[in-house]
Design brief:
Lipocalin; eight-stranded antiparallel beta barrel; disordered N terminus; membrane; 4 domains; Beta-lactamase; alpha+beta; single chain; Beta-lactamase family protein
Length: 638
């Protein structure tokens, strides 16, 4: 009896302790949830401070933000002026911002709607949905699954046709897709390379299969069910919608000057939408609810879950990758799907965290940079959902294998077949350099950052959470690099002729040599007139060759720097005219070779003179090859 009582008393004591422990844990969890909820409820103060600081530091005239939580609009606000002249403030409810490539999410949603109905097969050759044909460069056809994950294998393009300015208007979607088919540079499914063309092609497929114009399809099947009153793909906007459009501005002569409305109609499904923050909030809620908003469905639950699921990743150890159109990112241990977007005048980001039931949308009117939108969501996660960094120790034997990663890498997202390739001359590379600390220093994409090896070919940022992975596609050494935060853009080892030595340093030296030839003639012109005929011919041919190369390069660089982004709206006549100069320079180079050979036969020059002019002419030959490689010879616009 006494033993039984002791056991009963012990059991009661254990039960009481367990109850107290459970109560304590529940209290802690409830308190933490309440604290997190309280923080989110007070998010207006944090966002106000963040946006107002960004507007001052980065000279931004207008911003709009919306945040949704647990199926409700938690916060929305407009900042700055939608119309500076009229002093009209931005309204989160009604003010329309150009959302750039964030528009793609509507195109992907439309694709998944038709897939859900059995009208689109994600694994079928896209040619079966077109009235023209994507060339069969590779044995494997391009499918919508490749397009959704940006692995179709197209080169990039847009010079002269991507953006127009109202009232100018480019070709209609169907015509543009036929006119501007990009070269296929990789087998589908192998490399991620962001493609506006591929997305616009998906929009055309939606149009062809549904029998409804793309803009109208989105209006009827996405905007209307979600009551997105202030959203449109139309370009230009209707009069009633245009009243709510935030005007684009850039600084001219020290003050904001209004810019024309950007027209992306030829590639509309890839970036043509205009929307308010509150309208985008409804879209985010629908995706957080797996396709449902206020009783209306734009996707069935299973389809939405498929759309949000991972479709492509460069490395299975990455937390991020590409879902079916959405980027998959990791913010402090939280899985976030979303999409950014940029036009010349607007910069946008959208992020959806299904685990937290949280959605964030932000859009800036700015022609300065897109840095603000790149950082906004990350700043919110760092503030409300911080995650301590794990301290990593570099492997002591890393130096033994560091060199296999070292080198220069270039984004696959670039042009290869047209004159647009030449814009890559001024483009940077991502450089990977081993350090004495047994880490890799990576420069070019961000400020220099060090990465430490954490697994085979996998590295993590020493003082951050960015990861990179190296891949051997050919099986013969490392040839590909991926950043976890850029799942839609892989990089290859920079082709030799595109490294800094060959594309910038050597041409700079050559142009200085040509300049010396011209200056030398100016000071020695009287002496040159006394030379034998063959020598004189070589001197003058080398002079005109040098001068033609100098003028060609200086004028072309000046035009590109003068027009900059405006080149994406059209090829100016002055550029078309200037492209005759490289041809003239090449012809004069050939003539210089002729005069050089002719002089050799006469034997009238010294060895030193032969060496000098051989160097000058070889420089001319190099520049001819240079023009050819960068597609500057001729008028190869598209």
């Amino acid at each position: 009896m006494q033993v039984h009582q002791k056991i009963s008393s012990g059991a009661q004591f254990f039960a009481l302790c367990s109850l107290l422990l459970i109560t304590l844990l529940f209290s802690i969890l409830t308190s933490a949830q309440a604290s997190a909820q309280e923080q989110l409820e007070n998010i207006d103060t944090y966002i106000d401070g963040t946006i107002e600081a960004q507007m001052i530091l980065e000279d931004i005239p207008a911003v709009t933000v919306s945040v949704v939580k647990d199926g409700e609009l938690l916060f929305s606000k407009g900042y700055g002026l939608a119309d500076i002249e009229e002093q009209e403030p931005v309204s989160a409810e009604t003010s329309l911002f150009r959302i750039g490539s964030t528009s793609k999410l509507f195109t992907w949603t439309a694709v998944m709607q038709l897939h859900e109905k059995g009208q689109l097969d994600l694994d079928a050759d896209v040619n079966q949905y077109l009235d023209f044909e994507i060339p069969a460069t590779y044995e494997q056809p391009i499918t919508l699954r490749h397009i959704l994950s940006h692995t179709a294998g197209f080169e990039d393009g847009g010079l002269g046709y991507l953006i127009h300015y109202f009232p100018d208007k480019g070709p209609e979607l169907a015509d543009a897709m036929k006119m501007y088919i990009p070269t296929r540079v990789n087998p589908p499914g192998e490399v991620s390379s962001y493609s506006n063309y591929a997305t616009a092609l998906a929009g055309l497929i939606v149009q062809n299969v549904s029998g409804t114009q793309f803009n109208q399809y989105v209006e009827e099947n996405i905007f209307a069910p979600l009551n997105m009153k202030y959203a449109s793909f139309n370009e230009p906007l209707s009069d009633s919608m245009n009243e709510h459009m935030v005007k684009g501005y850039t600084r001219e002569m020290g003050k904001f000057a209004e810019q024309p409305f950007e027209m992306i109609n030829a590639f509309g499904p890839a970036g043509g939408a205009s929307a308010s923050a509150d309208a985008m909030a409804k879209f985010m809620i629908a995706h957080l609810n797996n396709g449902e908003f206020n009783g209306n469905r734009i996707l069935q639950k299973e389809t939405a879950e498929q759309m949000h699921s991972l479709l492509f990743t460069a490395d299975e150890r990455f937390s991020g990758g590409m879902a079916h159109g959405f980027y998959v990112s990791d913010y402090n241990g939280h899985r976030v799907i979303g999409h950014g977007g940029d036009t010349m005048q607007f910069h946008t980001d959208l992020a959806i965290d299904k685990d937290q039931n949280l959605g964030i949308f932000v859009s800036y009117m700015s022609t300065v940079s897109n840095a603000a939108r790149n950082n906004f969501v990350k700043q919110i996660y760092d503030h409300y959902f911080p995650q301590p960094l794990k301290q990593l120790k570099p492997p002591s034997d890393f130096a033994e294998r560091a060199d296999k990663y070292a080198g220069s890498y270039t984004f696959w997202r670039r042009n290869i077949s047209s004159i647009e390739k030449a814009l890559g001359i001024m483009g940077g590379t991502i450089d990977v350099v081993p350090t004495e600390d047994n880490t890799l220093m990576v420069t070019g994409l961000y400020h220099p950052r060090q990465f430490v090896e954490v697994d085979d070919n996998l590295f993590r940022q020493v003082d951050g959470d960015e990861q990179i992975t190296f891949v051997s596609r050919s099986g013969d050494g490392i040839d590909t690099l991926y950043f976890e935060s850029f799942p839609f853009m892989g990089m290859e080892r920079t082709p030799t002729f595109e490294t800094g030595l060959f594309k910038l340093l050597l041409p700079t030296f050559i142009l200085l040599l040509f300049l010396q030839v011209v200056i030398s003639w100016f000071y020695k012109r009287k002496h040159y007139k006394t030379l034998p005929s063959a020598n004189r011919s070589l001197v003058y041919s080398a002079l005109w060759m040098s001068l033609s190369h100098l003028v060609a390069v200086i004028l072309l660089v000046g035009i590109v720097l003068g027009y900059q982004d405006a080149l994406y709206s059209g090829i100016p006549f002055i550029l078309k005219a200037a492209l005759v100069l490289p041809i003239i320079a090449v012809l004069l180079t050939l003539f210089s070779i002729y005069t050089y050979v002719k002089r050799i036969k006469t034997g009238e020059a010294s060895t030193l003179s032969h060496i000098y002019y051989s160097v000058v002419i070889l420089a001319g030959v190099y520049m001819a090859v240079y023009y050819y490689y960068w597609n500057i010879l001729g008028w190869n616009y598209y």
